[in-house]
Amino acid sequence: MFFEKLKMLEIEKNSKFSERVLILSIPAAVVFIVLSLLKLLSPFSAVLSYIAIIFFNMIFLSSISFELQRLKRYINDLTIGKYDQSVSLSEQEAKDIADAVNSMHRFFTDKTDALEAKSMADMAVLDTLPDPIMMLDRSGNILGANLATRKLFGPKITEQNIEKILNVPSFIQAVSNVLKNKSESENLTFFMPEPLSKKLFAHINKLPAFSHARAFASVSLFDLTKTITMEKMQSDFVANASHELRTPLSVISGFIDTLQTTAKDDEAARDQFLNIMAQQAAFMSDLIEDLLSLSKIEMQQNDLPKEKTDVSKIIDEVVSALTLKAQDKNMRIEVQKQPHLPKIIADSGQIKQLLQNLTDNAIKYGLSNSAVKIDIKTVQSIPPSKSMNVADSKAVFISVNNKGPKISPTDLARLTERFFRLQEHKNQGIKGTGLGLAIAKRIIMRHRGNLTVSSTTLNGTTFSVYLPVKL
Ligand SMILES: Nc1ncnc2c1ncn2[C@@H]1O[C@H](COP(=O)(O)OP(=O)(O)O)[C@@H](O)[C@H]1O
Ligand SMILES: [Mg+2]
Questions:
Q1: For 164-215, how does the pLDDT look when each residue is reduced to its tens digit (9 = 90+)?
Q2: Is 460 in the pocket of ligand 1 (CB under 6 A)?
Q3: How many CB atoms are located within 10 Å of the residue 422 CB?
Q4: From the alpha carbon of 402, which atom of ligand 1 is closest?
Q5: Is 461 exposed, middle or buried (CB count within 10 Å of its CB: 0-12, 13-18, 19+)?
Q6: Does ligand 1 come within 6 angstroms of the Cβ of 455?
Q7: Does the beta carbon of 436 lie inside 6 Å of ligand 1?
Q8: Separation of alpha carbons 197 and 226, rounded Å
C-alpha cells in the first residue's frame, strides 16, 4: 500500500516529495552528528537511526502528499469540466477541502447556468426586435449583435471593430465620443453608402457602470429609408392631387374670364364654354370622389369586412349599370358564371366599386365593336403576392377581359399606382382620374385577396381578382 502510494507520487514530477523528506530529516541528522561527535552514539548506530527516521518521515509524508496529489488532480479535472464527485480521500482535512471545492463548484455552475439561461433569453428578446442593436467594448469591438444587425451586416460581425462594419466618418466620430467618455450618448442621422444605400438613425449610449463586464456602449440603429419613402409618397400624392385639381380649375377660371370679357355677348360661345365648364366641374367632382374613396379605404385597411356577400348578384348590377355605356361603343358584356358560387365575407359596397372600376375600364379602354368578357368561378386557393397579404382560403375568382393593344410589362407593373395613366390614353383624350385601379387594389388588399393583370396582343388585357370566401 505504501509503495503503491510512492509509485503514484513518482508520476508527479513536481511533487517535491524527496526534498520534503530530506528537509524534515535535517534536525534528526544534526542531533545524530552531535551525539556521535560526543561519542554518545556510534557512527554506525547514528546512520542506522537516521535511515530509520528517513523511513518514518517517508511514511508520514507520503499519505499527506498522496492526498494533496489526489486533490490537485481532482481540482484540475474540475477546471476542464470533468466532474466526478466520488473522489476518495482518507484524511479528514483533505475531505473537508474537497467538500469546500465541491460546494464552490456547485455554486458557480448554478450561477453560470442561470446567467447562460438569462443571456440566452435576453438574446432571444433582442432577436425579436426589428431594429439592429449592438454591444461594444471600450475599443469599439462588437461583443454582441441581435438578429436584425446580423441580417444587415452579415452573420460574422462579433469581435470585429465597428469601424470595419460601419465606416461612415460622422458615425465613427459619434461612437468615439462615447467610448472616450466625451459624452454619455450621441444621436445622429447618416447615409450608408452602397451596397446598403440606407438612411439610418443611430443612438449610441454609454452603458450604466453596473452592467460593465466588457460591454461599454450600445448602438441602436433605425432604418429611416421606409419612413422617408412613405413621406415622399405622401407628399408626391398631395402634389399630384393638387396638380390634377388645378388643371380643370384653371380651365374653368379661364372660361369665366372669357365669358366676362371677350365672349360676353356671344351666345354660341357661351353655350359651348358652359358645356366645357360643366365637364371640367364633373371631372373635379369625380376626382374628389375618388380621393375620398381612396383615403377611406386606406383608413379601413386593418378593419376586416364582415358581410355575407353575393358576388354574382353584384356582377349583375354592375353589368346592367354599364350596358348603355358599352352600347355607345358598340360593345357587348358577356358574363360566364359557374353555378352555385359561394357567398364571400366582404364589404359589398366596396366589391361593387371594385367590379365597376374594372368593367368601366374594360369598356373605356377596350376596342369598339368587341366584347368585354367577365368570368366568375370558385378556386381552391389564392396565388401568393409580393405586395399583398393573401388569405389562406377558397376564393371566388373574377376575370375581366377586353380586346385592345398589348400593354408593355413596365406599364403593366405600374397600372395600380395612384394617378398613373397610359400615355396613349392621355393622348387620345380619354378622361380619367388615374385612381380607379389604385382603389381596386386597396379594396382587394383589405379583403386579403389578390389581383393579377396580363396583356397580350392576341387576347387583349385581363384583370384577375381573387376574393377569399373566408377571411
Ligand atoms: N382594361 C384596360 N385596358 C387597357 N388599359 C387600361 C385598362 N384598365 C386601365 N388601363 C390603363 O390604366 C390606367 C389607370 O386606370 P384607372 O386607375 O382605372 O384610371 P382611369 O381609368 O381613371 O384613367 C388607365 O388610364 C389606362 O391607361
Ligand atoms: Mg378607371
A1: 999 999 999 999 999 999 999 999 999 988 877 889 999 999 988 765 567 8
A2: no
A3: 19
A4: 1
A5: buried
A6: no
A7: yes
A8: 12
Residue type at position 119: S
Which of 228, 216, 229, 223 is CA-nearest to residue 148? 223
Helices marked H in 38-146 — which ranges? 43-79, 92-128
CA angle 347, 350, 355 (to 5 degrees): 125
Closest-lying ligand 1 atom to the alpha carbon of residue 290? 22
Domains present along the chain, CATH in parentheses: 2-99 (no CATH), 129-223 (3.30.450.20), 227-299 (1.10.287.130), 304-468 (3.30.565.10)
For helices 92-128 and 43-79, give the axis angle rounded to 10 degrees: 20
Pocket lining: 437 vs ligand 1, CB cutoff 6 Å: yes
Ligand 1 atom nearest 362 alpha carbon:
1
Ligand nearest to the CA of 360: 2
pLDDT at 9 over 60: no
Residue nearest to atom 18 of ligand 1 (CA): 436
Pocket test for ligand 1, best of 437, 444, 451 (most atoms within 8 A of CB): 437
Angstrom CA distances, 456 to 36, 346, 412, 445, stand at 125, 31, 11, 26
Query: Mean per-residue pLDDT for 68-83?
Result: 78
377 C-alpha to ligand 1 centroid (Å): 24
Q: Does any ligand 1 atom lie closer than 6 A to the CB of residue 434?
A: yes
Question: Which residue's alpha carbon is nearest to atom 4 within ligand 1?
Answer: 365
Neighbours of 102 (CB within 10 A): 15
Percent of the chain with pLDDT over 90: 59
Name the 3-class secondary structure at 343. coil
Q: Which SS3 state, helix, strand or coil, does residue 132 take?
A: coil
Q: Which three cell numbers stand for residue 353?
A: 366599386
